[in-house]
Amino acid sequence: MFQVSNVLLNSTHINWDAFKRQFTEDWDIDISAESPDKDCLVFTVDWLCVSCMFIPAPVPNNEAVLYAENNYTWGEAVEVTSSHQAHVIVSILDPLHTADAIECLLLHTKVVSSLLKLDNAIGVCQSPTVLSPEFYIHEAQRIYQGVLPILTWVYIGLYQDEDGVSGFTSGLNKFGKDEIEIIRSQQEGYQIYDMLASIAAYVIQNNVKLKDGETIGMGPEQKLQITRSEGVAMNGESLKIAF
Length: 243
Prior knowledge:
Elements lengths: L3 E6 L6 H12 L12 E6 L2 E8 L7 H6 L8 H6 L3 E8 L7 H15 L5 E6 L2 E3 L1 H8 L14 E7 L2 E7 L9 E6 L3 H18 L8 E2 L7 E7 L6 E5 L2
Parallel strand pairs: 9-12
Antiparallel strand pairs: 1-4, 1-5, 2-3, 3-4, 5-6, 7-8, 8-9, 10-11, 11-12
Helix pairs in contact: 1-4, 4-5
């Protein structure tokens, strides 16, 4: 199980039939033969098992609202998230232990994006943030072009102090990769975001393991030093990119 997401609902009901129709329409995967009970839908796609558990209550411990505070690109994240009354827990199980992270997460993204098209869906909570339906569905549509929806899997955090702007990834560990940080850069926040997103995509798509002492760049002239050291915005070690 590589990721668990909570699809947030603003009412305490779930329309499994509407989801199944939407999922089939979106991804040409027929699950109409499955018979859910009131609170749970379980189905298989190839050898992977999809579990969607409806919980007619908010995410416990105010966790979703706290995570929503981390979405600096969605101004209404906290307000919208605070209105949720129920949620659907989505997870992908690999009973044969033969799938890799990308296979599982692609299916996960497909399921969540179709659930987010339900009339009462208002967002998706997945550590450490909450994403809007519009953002998530837009990213999921990249799958149609053969592009991995990296930003549904990896969170990019930004923060600033008097010494500059810093950024970090959260989610590369799902792929067995080190998380990445840019510390106290003089670049603009959007440039740090784009750099971290580009590096994360490169690492995942090409199964690359960045190493201490190497360099990386987005062009032949750019050579950014990589240093492995204790994390600043996270526990454990991370790779620092000098940008």
